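Note to self: the last two entries modelled the partners one at a time, which told us nothing about the interface. This time every component goes in together.
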Amino acid sequence: MKMKRFVAMALSCVLAAGLLAGCGDKKEGNQGSADGAVTIKIGGIGPLTGDLAQYGTATNWGAKVAVEEINALNGPIKLDFRFEDDTGSVDTAVSAYNSLKDWAKNSPLVIYGCTTTDPCVAVSSETYADRYFQLTPSASSPDVTTGKNNVFQMCFTDPGQGVAAAEYVKNTGIAAKVGVIYNNGSAYSTGMAEAFIAKAKELGLEVVATQTYPSDDTTDYNVQVNACKDAGAELVFLPIYYTPASLIMTQAKQSGYDPIFFGGDGMDGMLAVEGFDAGSVEGLLLMTPYNVGDPSTRNTTFVDSYKKLSGGIEPNQFAADGYDCMYAIYEACCKLDGIADMDSAALCDALSALFTGGEFKVDGLTGSGMSWLTTGEVSKSPMVVKVQNGSYVDP
Amino acid sequence: MSLLNNLIIGVSLGSIYAIIALGYTMVYGIAKMLNFAHGDVIMVGAFVSFFAAGSFGLPPVVGLLLAMAVCTLLGITIERLAYKPLRQAPSLAVLITAIGVSYLLQNGAQILWGAATKTFTPILEGQLSLAGGQITVTYVAILAVVCCLVVMVCLTLFTGKTKLGKAMRACSEDKGAAQLMGINVDSTISMTFAIGSALAALAGVLMCSAYPVLSPTTGALSGIRAFTAAVFGGIGSIPGAFLGGILLGIIETFAKAYISTSLSDAVVFGVLIVVLLVKPAGLLGKYVPEKV
Amino acid sequence: MKKLGTQKRTSLNGLINYAIVIGAYVLLRVLMGAGLLSNSLQSVLVPACCYMVMAVSLNLVVGISGELSLGHAGFMSLGAFSGIVAAVALQNLVPFAPLRLAAAMVIGALFGALGGFVVGVPVLRLRGDYLAIVTLAFGQIIQNIIMVLYVGVDAKGIHVTTDSARLVLAEGGTAIVKGPMGAVGAPKLATFTAGAALLLVTLFVAQNLVNSRSGRAILALRDNRIAAESVGIPAGKYKLMAFVTSAALAGAAGALFGLNYSSTVASKFNFNTSILVLVFVVLGGLGNIRGSMVAAALLYVLPELLRGFNIAEYRMLVYAVILILVMLFTNNPTLQGFFGGVRERLFQKAPEGTVKGGGANE
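The predicted structure of the combined assembly is written out below.
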């Protein structure tokens, strides 16, 4: 018995000691590098392991591309970027945040993240108390920003998207009877679905079927699809991520049901999935702020650098939002006077004031002239696109 | 009509659970261990088949055979390195090691192949339309049911009639006595893992053909479901795994269709608990009274 | 479990456990005061305390009572959500934060115990792996149900519904639990002191249970159920006692955990969390309370320490390898013999007998 403990503890201790020794690496001072540029530390948080890892890695790589570009500009601000894994869970996210605080020591630090909503809510109340500026690329619940003047979003809020979707359906008149299939285990999906249903009813659309499923690990959606089919829904709103959505569309096709499918920004990235048959989602409508096929030079450069980093995976809106976050922080920092003398709290107040001041606008990959409301919500126009021949076109 | 339709959906889903549960029950029945890494072997099998078809353009059957070969090797390797040294250890220690192996496979797969979801190209596409298109059955579902039946019959014959199969049953009854009878317990158990892992590869390919998404965590959840199915039918019993899988699929589908889609998990597990309370060894499991 | 040699020895063992906790608490406080403890380590203190309590409480079931439970996180979940609701509802009634936290933990423990009772009565009739699957199923059911619950509080009291539209609150009311969004905006009441206190209470409860008449009955049932029953020990009653106590402690730990973060979701307390706690118990040694405590502390902090390496993507892979290696090193007779020999020569003392497996390997 003692022996077991002895060996187990010895093993763990040796490892822990090695790590502690390893983590005392020295970081050079934050300010006044050779060319007089000010260095701002950006601490990113998101899932790099676990079942949400694909979203975290996208926001990580997207931001990295932007940081490299920015640092190559030789402008007045340099960014020092580090990304920590939160495995998508709340407690790990808070300790990731604290380890970023340790990393920054006394240098000014801006928090970039979290990628997913629940960890972001937890971390944002910490940054609010500690006074760090926080910009999240993708945590889209209003809870993230409510009551916190230091937290801003780069993505649309969930209810905002739901409302926009209902308005789009009404205005274009593409359907009168709508069905909804959503993940009632996800804040993102539920938030969007509830707002959509409420708005659709208000606008006089008939919501004939409301179907749920408990988690994105679900593989069989035939029951939900058949319920929409039997209720005669002409359009099925899918406020969910692309993995379950592709299964739903495949299963609908197998049972001979062919409504208009309409999704939110979680659908973006579907076409880049390895092995995906774009023909199976022909005609899908989705709201996304980002189009990977956008021919502008800025975007093609981004896509090329991103693919180099990711080993050939195409960027999606998570990556693009991450890229835009870095530019928003960079451009905002460039506008601040006396940034060289600011600590994190002063930087937080200055940046928050600038973001909510009404004057500050950023052009990025996910929108031009993006600005922020005092609630922390981003103001940019949602774009509805249609999938045709494997790319996004104007519907 | 909708009842029949839901029944078909349930059986299709259940056949996938059943094929995974068969592998689970095989390993449990002989080695008496809950192999939590089984679901992740399924995932590896599916990935091998995915790359065989996608990157090398091999025909689906070759991809399947390749996946089975790779998984067999993987199963034997895992057994040799991680489980064999623990033959004398308490079963909980083996359980934890199996969980460690499961984490290792998941995270290894993520590093090797990326976290992003991939779309699996089904080995068989299309569906059978009946009653003027009101009822459809996918060919994959039919294939899965056929595979289940074939595997079930083969496994029953194998364990009942062949020498190696009898050796396996002997090991399952009493390892010590089997050894005294001249059975090589280690190689017999390795063989069990080899068969179980080959079945896992088959299950992985069928599952991903029926529900064509693939990611490093694909196996974990279906593993738990299949484990539930195996227990439901009576763990260790080969026909039990099949029956448990099919019934679980039907119950899940009916719960979604007629009770609540949000509470379907609660209903499925609730039924499981009630069944176990009435029949503590599962539907077809043998209740072994304790010896004094 | 050590052979219950003399009463003196077991009580000494218990005292050492209290001393370790208090000593560690004082040491960490001093380090914090001197500013020597990194933010990252400070932030894991409260959750580490929660997981230590979870591990000790699960050890009561798996190690002491010998039943394999795979749904322990379910009780933590019950405690977390009831604790959060209690803390928010008592906001005006009990303004003093530590008292409110204590009340929340008590309520969490009550809900945990209630859950433990409801689960335990039918489930403890089953044996071995079947018991394991049923506890797993209960964990899933609890998670599934909390996921669709909407709970709000206003002047009229607490409202519970499964439909967000039906949660109508009077003016000044707050929605506490919002289905899949979980509990958002809970007050952050948890402190390291509260964590250490809960750990001491847990040790007190667990050690007194083990060393009591009931504890001996539970151990007897684990070692040989038939023999124990034949001398008139009611198996159901004692197994249930261990199970409910364990669930209550898990509930209290859950309440503390929930009140440490402003966002708590039901999916946090899933199968993986149950497994994580089980890993702590097995690595610490079945039936060994101190082992559970130490293993939980070390292993919970380990992934955080792994951040020091720049190996973000490899972090969990390394964790898995360590897990397997530790299991192999501590359970393989050849390796054990080797290390035992080394120890013998070093300490001039015969190694004690290895632990007997719990009831799960019957």
